[in-house]
Structure formats: structure tokens, C-alpha cells
Amino acid sequence: MNIAMLLDMAASGDPDRVAVGPRDAGTTCAELRRAAAGVAAVVHSSGARELVFAGVNGPAFPVLLFGAALAGVPLVPVNYRLSAEALAGLLKHTERPLVVADETLLAEAFAGCEVRTPEALLAEGSAAEPAVGLEADADDPAVLLFTSGTTAAPKAAVLRHRHLSSYILQTVEFGSADPGDAVLMSVPPYHVAGVGSVLSNLYAGRRMVHLGSFEPEAWLGLVRTEGVTSAMVVPTMLARVVEHLDGRAAEVPTLRSLAYGGARMPRPVLEAALRAFRDTGFTNAYGLTETSSTIALLGPEDHRAALSSDDPLVRARLRSAGRMVPGVEAEIRDAAGVAQPAGAVGELWVRGPQVSGEYKGDAASLDTASLDADGWFHTRDLAHFDADGYLFIEGRADDTIIRGGENVAPAEVEDVLLRHAAVREAAVVGVPDEEWGERIAAFVVTHAGASVDAEALRAWVRGHLRSSKTPDVVVFRDELPYTPTGKLLRRQLLTPTTRKG
Ligand code: AMP
Q: Could you tell me which of 32, 51, 71, 444 has the fewest CB atoms within 10 Å of its CB?
């Protein structure tokens, strides 16, 4: 199935429903279908083989996503925050691209390419004869996403129409949203959750409202003025909202559902958010680019149960990623590839119709080991399941610190540091060491006005974990480096200037 079918279903099911934009002046499903067919006509007549989008999340994004699908070419959303040089580097991996870029990026990054602003492309499309019959097959690429890995060589995950449509058909009920429902989109288009949100919300029948550039106050303001009923945020966004609220209630009576994911959610941020958003149901969504977004979910009921239960097993689920979504199988394997029972920590492998695991680009050949002969995909996340099938993500296998032969998961030490009243952010990494193999370094940002010294933090960790997990070095920083989608850039902490202590 081509993802454009999802738009066709929405447009024929309820053509006059506002799909994108403000309640009284937005774009209806039928208008979105017409706009996408116009964009498809322009893409087709340009001879482009890929439609590249470098811009913020906004009303143009759904049009481009479906326009590319109707033209039979993949959409390639790229990170508009990258330098002109880095963007030019990514473009080398594209085939005959037509670039759509926000005005500010035009001159610098895309000199020498066929390039339009979103507004110009949409205007051209609306004047064009709508494209018909060019749709790609289910097996053709729908979206190419450069993964947010921190390695230098770019590689794009290939998501085919069948992957994305399987994800939607398995996890979303068509037209299941209530008539007034609206979703606030603030995750960038180049993140798989940005793509997944367009498809799932259109299919469910939820109006999309956009916030191009995330600011906590603007986010809360839009929720209130647009009567937003659901939203998705990455952990750094929720942390900023919570910090902005500074202990006050969020006062967003329409917001029934708030999903978070994309990176590990620090427990103190979640707890503060649960206090600030008392009437909102929380969902933790775990997934990877390569799995077409979400593959495990911890829903609102699980959050409530974890908060109110006396059973330590149920309480612990507040840091779980929940249960696998329908259609996705999961297995925990040890380093030798042997499947592990519930409770054992190992590497998470997954399989299902929404799972791709295929790449394109310079580094693609390095990743041939991502899929095994039976189609299982190696997530490279360390994880375990509890006896009831709840998934717990411990972090990336590559981030594990091996100190004197003992494995230390950075998340475990970070969680303890974050429980200290003076600590706002914490990152724990391994630093090469002749004696121990690796030593444990903790990078810490304190709350404004709070003060604590390295020795006190080491004693705090020693008091909660074994002494072998105590950071050897504590480095105080004003801020930690994150990707725009909330992933901690651990390797950046290990530049020579910070290897001290
Ligand atoms: P990406 O493909 O760039 O979206 O990154 C996927 C990785 O982000 C996963 O392999 C996890 O390490 C991490 N991740 C995504 N969602 C979650 C979540 N809900 N909880 C913990 N880690 C997550």
C-alpha cells in the first residue's frame, strides 16, 4: 500500500474536515489531497528522483510528504539546522533532487541545485494539472531519513511505503479521533516521529497544528488557543516546559494525551511533568528511525498504575517503554546471539512489517549486520523485559562503560545523579584509562543557584550504587550537548579539552 492511500481514505471519508491549520481557516482533507497532487505534478515534470525538504515543521510538510508519494519519489527531510557544508554533504547522497528549502537556507546551502521555497512550490502546484497514476509501489521508498547518529559518515534509513503503511494500519484506527481533536506537532520533519505523526493523525482524523520552532511558552500558548487535545514531545522539550512552569500547574484543560519519546526520559522530569499535567494521560513511545517510529508503548493506564501501586514491580514501570505494538516481535539476545529469558539484560532485536533496517549512503555497507538471515533487526539498544512483557531500555550498547571488567550502563549512574537536588542534567561516559580500561566520567549541570562539589556527588552515587559504579571524575558544565531531537551527544563530551579532572 502506498501512503497516499491514507490521504485518499481521509479525503473520501470526510473531505471537508480541517486536516491542517487553524480551526476556522485551515486546509481541509480534500484541499490537502488537491495540493499534494499539484506538488506531485511539479515534481514529476521537473524530472526529479527525490524531493528534499529542508525546513521547519509546518503546514507544507504534509503536502510534501503526500506530494512525493503521489509523484512516485521518496521524500528526504533533512536537518535544516546543519551547516551549509553538512547539508551539501548530505545532498551528495541524493539522486536528482528537487530541493524545497525555507527562504533563509536558499542562498547558502543549495547553490547549484534546483530549489524552491515551500510557498513557491505549493503555488506552482496549485496552478498545475493534478498528477494522476504516478504513485509508487508498496515496495518503493517513501521516505529517506538520515539517522541522528553522531558518526561523521551520513547514512539514510530507507523506509518503504509498505513499512510506513503497516505501522499506521497496525497501530491506528481509521477515523478514531473525536470531531474537535487537534494535535500539536513540534517534532522536526527530519525525525521519524515527525513523519509518523502526519500519517497517524491524518488517518485518525485529528487536525494538525504546527509549532515550527519549539519554545515552552509558545507551545503552552498554542495548546490553549487551539484547544489542542494531544501532543508529542522529545524529553528535552518536556524538560524545558517543566522548567518554564517552575512548579506551577500547566493549565491546559483540553490536553488529554501527551506522548514522549525519541530518547530516554529522565525520571525527575517525568515526575515533575506528571505533577504539572494532572489531567493529561501520558504515553511513552519507544522506536527507531529504522522501525518506522513507535514499536513499544507505555500508555496512560500504565502510568497511573505505576504511580498509585504498592507493588514495586508495577511502580518500576514508570521507567518502562511499555509493551510491543501489534505486529512487532521482540527478542533479547546475548552477545553470542542466544535468546534470553525475561529479566535478563541483552541486546534488543525486533522483526515485523514496519521494520526496515535498510540503509543508503557512505556508511551503509558498515551496517549490513543490522538484519539477520531471518529478518530480525538489531536495535543496538540494551534492554530487558519483565515477566509481564514490559520493555525496559537501558541505553545504547555502544555507550556501555567497561571499567575493570565490570559493565556499567551510563543510564543507571545518570538516574542516581539526577535524583540529587542540585543536579539538573547529567551525562556519564567512559574515558580510556590504562589501568581500568575505562574510567567513569560524569558531566553535570546544576540547577541555577544550587551548589554541590564533586566529592559530594561521588559520595551520593556510592551511597546508592556499588562503589565500582562511582564516577572517577565529575566535570561541571553550563550545558550539555544534545541533538535537536533530544539525544545526548556523548562523544562530544570527550573532546580533549574535557578529558580532565
Ligand atoms: P532515532 O532512530 O534517531 O530516533 O534513535 C532511536 C534511539 O533512540 C533508540 O535506539 C533508543 O536508544 C532511543 N529512544 C527512542 N525512543 C526512546 C524511548 N521512549 N525511551 C528510551 N530511549 C528511546
A: 444
